[in-house]
Amino acid sequence: MKPKIKRFAVAFILVILSFVLQTTVFSWLSFSGIVPNILIILTATYGIMKGDRIGILTGFFCGLLSDVFFGTFIGLNAIFFMCIGFFNGKFHQVFYEDDVKLPLVLIFTSDLLYGLSYYVIMFLLRSRFDFSFYFLKIILPEVIYTIAVTLIYYPLLLLIHKLLDRSDKKEGMRFV
Amino acid sequence: MSPVIPQKGERFTIPGKYLLFVLTIICIALIVISFNTDILSKPISTVSGFVITPIQNGISKAGSYLSGRKEDLKQLRTLLEENESLKAKLDELTIENIKLQQDRYELVSLRELYELDSQYDDYEKVGARIIAKDSGNWFHSFVINKGSNDGLEVDMNVMAGSGLVGRISDVGPNWAKVLSIIDDSSNTSGMVLSTSDNLIVTGDLQCYSDGVIPFEKLVDTADRVVEGDKIVTSNVSDKYLPGILIGYISSINKDSNNLTKSGYLTPAVDFDHLNEVLVIKQLKQIVEEE
Question: What is the rounded CA–CA span in Å between residue B23 and residue A88?
Answer without folding.
Answer: 17
